[in-house]
Amino acid sequence: xxxxxxxxxxxxxxxxxxxxxxxxxxxxxxxxxxxxxxxxxxxxxxxxxxxxxxxxxxxxxxxxxxxxxxxxxxxxxxxxxxxxxxxxxxxxxxxxxxxxxxxxxxxxxxxxxxxxxxxxxxxxxxxxxxxxxxxxxxxxxxxxxxxxxxxxxxxxxxxxxxxxxxxxxxxxxxxxxxxxxxxxxxxxxxxxxxxxxxxxxxxxxxxxxxxxxxxxxxxxxxxxxxxxxxxxxxxxxxxxxxxxxxxxxxxxxxxxxxxxxxxxxxxxxxxxxxxxxxxxxxxxxxxxxxxxxxxxxxxxxxxxxxxxxxxxxxxxx
Amino acid sequence: xxxxxxxxxxxxxxxxxxxxxxxxxxxxxxxxxxxxxxxxxxxxxxxxxxxxxxxxxxxxxxxxxxxxxxxxxxxxxxxxxxxxxxxxxxxxxxxxxxxxxxxxxxxxxxxxxxxxxxxxxxxxxxxxxxxxxxxxxxxxxxxxxxxxxxxxxxxxxxxxxxxxxxxxxxxxxxxxxxxxxxxxxxxxxxxxxxxxxxxxxxxxxxxxxxxxxxxxxxxxxxxxxxxxxxxxxxxxxxxxxxxxxxxxxxxxxxxxxxxxxxxxxxxxxxxxxxxxxxxxxxxxxxxxxxxxxxxx
Amino acid sequence: xxxxxxxxxxxxxxxxxxxxxxxxxxxxxxxxxxxxxxxxxxxxxxxxxxxxxxxxxxxxxxxxxxxxxxxxxxxxxxxxxxxxxxxxxxxxxxxxxxxxxxxxxxxxxxxxxxxxxxxxxxxxxxxxxxxxxxxxxxxxxxxxxxxxxxxxxxxxxxxxxxxxxxxxxxxxxxxxxxxxxxxxxxxxxxxxxxxxxxxxxxxxxxxxxxxxxxxxxxxxxxxxxxxxxxxxxxxxxxxxxxxxxxxxxxxxxxxxxxxxxxxxxxxxxxxxxxxxxxxxxxxxxxxxxxxxxxxxxxxxxxxxxxxxxxxxxxxxxxxxxxx
Lengths: 317, 296, 323
Known about the structure:
The complex is a heterotrimer of chains A (317), B (296) and C (323). By secondary structure, chain A is mainly alpha-helical. Chain A has 13 helices and no strands. In chain A, helix 5 packs antiparallel against helix 6 and helix 7 crosses helix 8. Chain A is globular. Chain B is elongated and about 75 Å long. The two termini of chain B are 27 Å apart. Chain B has helices at 13-26, 28-45, 47-50, 84-120, 122-136, 140-150, 155-164, 168-181, 185-193, 197-205, 210-234, 245-252, 261-295. Chain B has 13 helices and no strands. Chain C is α/β, with parallel strands linked by helices and 323 residues long. Chain C is 28% helix and 23% strand. Chain C has nine helices and twelve strands. In chain C, a hairpin with a 2-residue loop joins strand 9 and strand 10 (233-239). Chains in contact: A-B, B-C. The interface between A and B is large, with 46 and 44 residues.
């Protein structure tokens, strides 16, 4: 088991390096480079720009810059924001809880509902429920999340007035859990829609594959009842590809969170990203890209380890 | 032998093509997808002929007409007095164009990388697949926005950027098909004849992955349209006054309380388009799958 | 003195077995482990053995479809083992292969016409209409109608597809054709048809064949000489009559015993063959056949017998015949 973990860790290293190279490359490929925000400002003289360039270390050869930057990343120095000079890592981390709350709630809800629908659909294949669920999932996948969010705001917040139309808290009510929950409902609903659809489809196909295996028929012949067969035989085997899916869908989860936060004005990392985009805050953009990339790598690593825990073939093979 | 008799067990090509069609038409959703996509493509193609007005023509005296109220403006007007129907039609043109060009970029990039990695094998394969894995670590929207924000937005640049951030899946699909195919004897026969690597990749292997590529391509149009709508909504995609369904929603957001249809209509069109391509792609996958297995 | 068309000396093709983690070599599959062959022009050589004997690997190594690990392959007097891809290209017109599986040896997405015009296009001999002319000639040569040009492989039977495969091998009039179990995947009645076709073509075009098969009966039909392979080595080889009526190696005798004979009166030593062929990754010591050999001696487990040349071009590698 340990050797498997070691192996996976080793495999993650080139990924990490690759992510950092691409991230770094993106920053420097942009026209104007990291100094664009300054070069476009007519009040800053060219000498100022040269000085800034030296201060930021941009006069050095590219690979030196990369190593310095990478070393900084490693030690927690992710640079400072252009406006305000705050450490980027801090800025990102302070937005993290909000986003994780949103992502976590949406993911849990979506997996719960999606997996249930998927399993039920698999058990009763081609029933009315299944047909509705399958097409429903397809339709849900086709909704532009941001539009769905707008519709939801219009309907629930503006029209019905049941729920707040945005933000995370009402002013002055930061400690009020109920208020937080009220603000959480719509964003979670919107973010969870697409994820639920994906999960229901995936669960259904994964369960279908498992249900038709010979060992399920053997279990039935042994006289095991339906829920026993489902829980003890089908579930563990169907679980493996689903955990893998978790890892694979992480980037999409981030993308969805970005969209949702923008619509609802949710003060998370996604909002941070879009705001930084508008202000051309390279350090934050870079930091966010690296953060999400690293998070995905770690997430996939954990998923693989979880799979190895469940499935002995993986860690022994 | 004077004529080619069809022996038992080998189905003639006519029967097999009919089989695909039959399987496809069995799915009502697939048919829905096909009809929807066709109608959308036609309306996009003939937008200049169908649209009652010039989508860019503004007349602030005619703001906020309600849909179905005025025969001159069947779907009403927006905040600048522009005809919504015309903007929807022309917007569809733009969104579909972006979707198709992005799809072509994705398919070409993904196929090239998948083909090369799958057929060449060895360290080339390892390096390319590591690259694919690395690219997959980034949320597509994040990557897209960063690049789109710093590249001067034009239809071509938007399409290509979308295409260049979504090819990874195609590469994986192509590579796994190629890995299976390259052990087949007909590939060894081509090598025995001295066929060049390029010839084997493009003339021998590529036609055999046409079916899964077609399915992937259809689904990629759907996702490209979706993604374009989002970045246009944010302002980093198609730039006004050029209309795309996404950027029509940007301004509509502010007028939601009073004139909701300005936001409902473009979004509905996006949903319809994406649904159409998704259903079509799914239907194609189901129809083509058994045939794939019959061949190899 | 006629020069041999093909001379193979000490051919070895080994495949490494790699560990999962660090891809270190943890073993070797010795598919071909020291094979010597000489093929004269116009000759039909049969290579016979069970699956796992390395005969297919040997054939593909000769054609350089699989890279040999060691040994020399001289084709038309020229050493081909070290040649670059570019240098091999003209030689590929002279040596071709017919595959076993008629299903997978033809590209399902190409018409027969395209499949057969490929050789001409690859070597720049002809294109378009001119190539089509050649293709029609090829089809006639193997007994297929001209209409086949526009049809797809799945529209044909196994035997017909194999004819296409043969036509493809013949396209550029090679000197040598290696048939890798060319009839094993066909119905018995069709097998005879295809073997007859091969025999006729050999006569008409002056071809040289190496026919690989696990079925001695099929091979005996048209082979002049036969070589018997076991676990990567040739255990016996010689003229057809010598092998069939005067087999020396116990393995050959066992193979012969398995062939149904149309002549019930022929003298036959029925020798049962125990067990399965061992894995080429883990061959037995000494003579590889000794665990299954009914006449094994103590020496056989220790020392591998070298091939010994008997009268009439008949050679055998067995301690029973120390020469």
